[in-house]
Amino acid sequence: MIRFENVSVQYDKSEPVLKDLSFHIQKGEKVGLIGANGAGKTTLMNALLGLLPHEGTIEVEGIEVEKQNLPEIRKRLGFVFQNSDNQMFMPTVYEDMSFAPLNYGHSKEQVDRMIDDVLEQLELSELKYRHNHRISGGEKRMAAIATILVMRPHVILMDEPTASLDPYNRRKVIDVMRSFDRTMLVTSHDLDMIVDTCQRVILLSRGRIVADGKTDVILHDKALLEANRMELPFRWSGNRE
Predict the structure, then answer these.
(1) 34-54 burial string, b = 16+ CB within 10 Å, else e?
(2) pLDDT at residue 87 in the model
(3) Best exposed site among 17, 131, 155, 182 by fewest CB in 10 Å?
(4) Residue 6 or 133, more confident
């Protein structure tokens, strides 16, 4: 589904932010992309979305991420922003959800069915005609996920999906992520959420991959995490209030 081969990204003449990255993500895999601040996680996501120039090869379902291919690439990728306000720009949830599918040529009747199906799946039907500025932060995060799912992307990208959520809404987002039947790549500092949702972890440090493997193995490795300015997930740290 996703292929990076010898990918580097450099801003101006500064030191490269991503340095010769190579990895593959197979169909259906749920992968956590972790690392300390400045490791290159956001840069990697932006390169995958075609927002940054890069050296090397990035492919999505065999289509190379190049300028002429970006419309087709972005039909396959659904990106959930960390800040839902950057994603929810229409007056109501319904208008946000219908915007992209209508612009992709679906009829209003088709779009209405697609929206109802997604809202029912997420148990959010009551939000359909709610105004975005009148729903809670947790509801807005779920609505942002709904705007992506309605486009039926093949790959879901998520940036810090549980950031700033209270425990109830955090658990609700995690439950939804676990229900996804699509390929998923998620960046987060919430390692307990990564344990709950991802079977594989890629650990970045200073723009390089320092570990890539099973979540339980990498996130149990205290020495590895601490060497890369991270800590064990809370559940395995031995700390209890």
Answers:
(1) bbeeebbbbbbbbbbbbebeb
(2) 85
(3) 131
(4) 6
